Amino acid sequence: MRFSIYQESKKGARKTNQDRMGYCYTREALLMIVADGMGGHLQGDMAAQIAVQTVGTLFQQQATPLLKSPTRFLEAGLLDAHQQILHYRTANKLAESPRTTIVACVVQGGAAYWAHVGDSRLYWLRSGEIIAQTRDHSKIQSMIQQGLASPAEIDTHPDRNKLFNCLGSPEPPTVELSRKMMLQPGDTLFLCTDGLWSAIPETAIAEAFRSNTVMRAVPDMINLALTEAGDDADNVTGVALSWEGADLSDARGVSSGGLPLGAITTTIDHLRPTQLEVPQSPMTDSEIERAIDDIRASIRKSNKLMPKV
Q1: 44-62 vs 70-91: helix axis angle to the nearest 10?
Q2: Which pLDDT score is estimated for 295?
Q3: Which domains, and CATH codes, for the chain?
Q4: How far apart are CA 151 and CA 154, in angstroms?
């Protein structure tokens, strides 16, 4: 595989960043994930962290170097992340379960497969135009489907952030899956949180990728979203991949062909979420951030002691 990939996240006007993101790839398969912890519930950032790490860890275990079934992997991975969040609540005697939205995408065999729960989105672009995107699990989307609202209201309606589907809720989530989508060289896959898509129009997203590489388009869109939202800016996160297709020596981007068999490149910490521990009393935002930093430091220290692949 040859591709270009870039990710970035900013906290905006919020006190902390509850978004989480990451990607990892083997010689023949790639995973991208974005999760948006729900701020109206306890420890939303921890829910997003658990979700990304759970799915990322499963990919690292099962992509050897291919996934047997990307669709089954995505559905099972998101449902397992939901269970891990519920386990986290029980283990730490929290008053309620942390919650998060999530969107994940696998690229394998020249095709893309994606899944989502909530309103974190995936856009598929070709020749500078959006040719497909995920459908939000929100009240306004449901109203549009019932003919009670106009599609033009989806990004501005006051109920656009009211969700009926997420990870960590008392009811099991519904994982919405795509079909197998064959990619063409030059196609772009863009995953983002609602802090981005709610602040800028889809025309701006299309224009950003029409005019720039993913390394330039993603930070440009994030900064534009923060500017447009101003003092109300939410956390803004995006991960984008530009697909180059065959592993040709004269193509641009990263080549996965040079990875040894069994090796994985990843930006996602490999950690069992059930090992996370917090005090039984609710943690402050700063305490959560310090706990995550401590976990990452422990992982880095452990990795230094492990033999290199």
Answers
A1: 140
A2: 40
A3: 2-7+18-297 (3.60.40.10)
A4: 6
